[in-house]
Amino acid sequence: MEHVEHVRFGDQLYAIIVRASFREAGIHFFSTPELSQQLAFMSHPEGKSIAPHRHNKVTREVHYTQEVLLIQRGKLQVDFYTVSEDYLESRVLCAGDIILLCSGAHGFHVLEPVEMFEVKQGPYSGENDKTRFDEVDASQIRIKGPGL
From 15, 49, 74, 140, which residue has the greatest number of CB atoms within 10 Å? Predict the structure, then answer.
């Protein structure tokens, strides 16, 4: 799908980007069942009913935080790094784009004033939740794909 990108480095899935231009009827899951965050797009016609339901208590074990960013306004550069902190490449997200960050490491640069939502597993444990490191020099940035 041209409106969906699975960002891979080697055999590792780092992110799933769904561009604002994605439009398909029905329900489309982009994430695989083993990911601790699930990402889907839903498009239903007027009059469609979704049966009332509740979610059951299910114990899940989460080892790493995965996060979803929904860009409401502006442009955001996402820089991908390995877990050993080596820079890989970058993507640009625009208004309406959504990204599920699955693995590896990442950093961000705001290219235009940005408003976005972030969704991730909680509760947030502050600085215990992440390890910060130095970003790549701007001269080494390689941006791939649309969004420029």
Answer: 15
